[in-house]
Amino acid sequence: MNQSLFPAGIKPKHIQLPKTDVFEPEVYAWTPPQAQARMNKKINKTLWKFMHDQGYGQPESTLTGGFDLKNNQQGILSLTMTIYSYSGGAHGITLEKGLTFDIFSGKSYNLKDLFKEGSNYTEKLNILIQAQIAERNLKDNLLAPYPGISATQPFYVADKTLVIYFDVYELLPYVYGTIYFPISIYSLQDTIKEDGPLGKLM
């Protein structure tokens, strides 16, 4: 029996409404029907909450957005949805939402789901991020001392890399935009859950 793992089929779904022009990712092939429905429900719910948080429906707000596929292999789908919102003034704001799924079950993952229970992954990630802040000469521009990752820290997976990110103004001034911290999964090997997304990509 052929056990090849195909990427999930993804197509854009165009949302065109007054002052809103957004492309939503839709899973349509190479996944079990229940998993497909589960992923699309999560994507849709996340996107619409994201749009409302960015000002959808408010007379002064204009929204544009789309998505990027970050990983679509070995049964793991990771993507980001980006929305630019403009409500007047000097500039608008661009924010990002990452989602990571198992394409066979439709399960979506939080950051803690990637690591073994009881592992020191939070401490390890914070050390690696702080090292990048120093290496990239960002420390003097931080809006406040680095706070550490949160329980709901956004992330995505890209091949052999875990990317932790912070939206504009979370760490640095507007000019820096979203800040990304790519971390090799091999540097986290002792904390990774073997049957989780990172374990499957090792």
Automatic annotation (TrEMBL):
Coiled coil location: none
Domain of life from the UniProt record: Bacteria
UniProt cross-references to InterPro entries, sorted A to Z: DUF3298 (IPR021729), PdaC (IPR025303), PdaC/RsiV-like_sf (IPR037126)
Domain Deacetylase PdaC: 33-94
Domain DUF3298, chain residue ranges per copy: 112-184
Pfam families: DUF3298, PdaC
Protein name according to UniProt: DUF3298/DUF4163 domain-containing protein
Protein's organism: Cytobacillus purgationiresistens
